[in-house]
Amino acid sequence: MEVAGIYSTSEAKSMKRASGKRKIRTSQSKYNRKEERCAYLCLIPAFLGITFISYLPTIAVFVLSLFSYNGLSSPEFVGLDNYIRIFTKDVYFASAVKATLLYAFLAVIGAVIYSLVIALILNMDIFGRTIFRSIFFIPYLLPAIGVFKGWQWLYEQNYGLFNFIFRMLGIPPQRFLDSPRQVIPALVLIAVWASGNLIVIFLAGLQNVPTVYKEAAQIDGANSWQRFWNITIPCIKPIIFYNVLTALITHLQVVNPALALTNGGPAKKSMFLSYVIYMYGFEKNKLGYAAAFSVIFFVLVGIFTIVLFVTQKDSIFSDEA
């Protein structure tokens, strides 16, 4: 009887412990459900905001591209006529695609190389490093219109600073913004100068490169270039990819230089896609036609983004990386 009593007591204790665990799990699950509901409630304002600010306007652009609409009269459904006209009859489309791609290509390469070089210098133990970091980041924070007006004075043919220096050196003055051959490089230089955000991101990535790798390579006799190419570059590959991606998307959407400096000229060499969309939508009131241009531009940016992801997938997102 005593043995039976002992077993019954232990079974009762185990049942109490199991019951207690079930209560704890039940209370935890209730708490988790309440926390989940609270999280969903907190996300509702953000979801509504992004829906009304981004998703619905994007859908509206796709729909509007199928209509002929000037903002005053009733929209007239034209189907794919806007797209057919863009690809077959539009006088700006080919020039806009060429100008946009050339500008984006040069600006991305120039901005990434420039930002990486400056970040490498600022990552060294140099005097006044904090001040120089601020100096190189400030151009990114300046208002765009102020930046372009300042560069307009620098590029001015008669009284600009650059041509003043050229005259002192015996070089003929250059027509930077008025020359079909020079306008894109001149605008790219402004974009490269204002890429302070890329410098900050590169600098953060460089500071996270493990110093133990560099020290081991230095002990093994690797020079500065070998340490940079075989250690630094592989460690900051995700940073390089991010900066290339953001710079590509940003510079494909270029419009401010054309609005502030060139008005699409000279000879349509700075007639960027975004500027053509602005011109058709707000100067010529062809909102449906401008929407069709926007859809084509959206697809073009998406294609370049997907190509960049696919080509860099193995080196950036692999397990070894």
From TrEMBL:
The scientific name of the source species is: Butyrivibrio fibrisolvens DSM 3071
Q: Record's Pfam families?
A: BPD_transp_1
Recorded protein name is: Multiple sugar transport system permease protein
Predominant location: membrane
Q: How does it sit in the membrane?
A: Multi-pass membrane protein
| Keywords, in A-Z order | Cell membrane, Membrane, Sugar transport, Transmembrane, Transmembrane helix, Transport
Keyword NAD among record annotations: no
One biological process term from GO is: transmembrane transport
Q: Where are the transmembrane segments?
A: 38-67, 101-122, 134-154, 183-206, 287-310
**Keyword Transport among UniProt keywords:** yes
Cellular component (GO) terms are: plasma membrane
Location of the ABC transmembrane type-1 domain: 97-308
Where in or outside the cell is it found? Cell membrane
Q: Enumerate the InterPro entries for this protein.
A: ABC_transporter_permease (IPR051393), MetI-like (IPR000515), MetI-like_sf (IPR035906)
By sequence similarity, the record places it as follows: Belongs to the binding-protein-dependent transport system permease family.
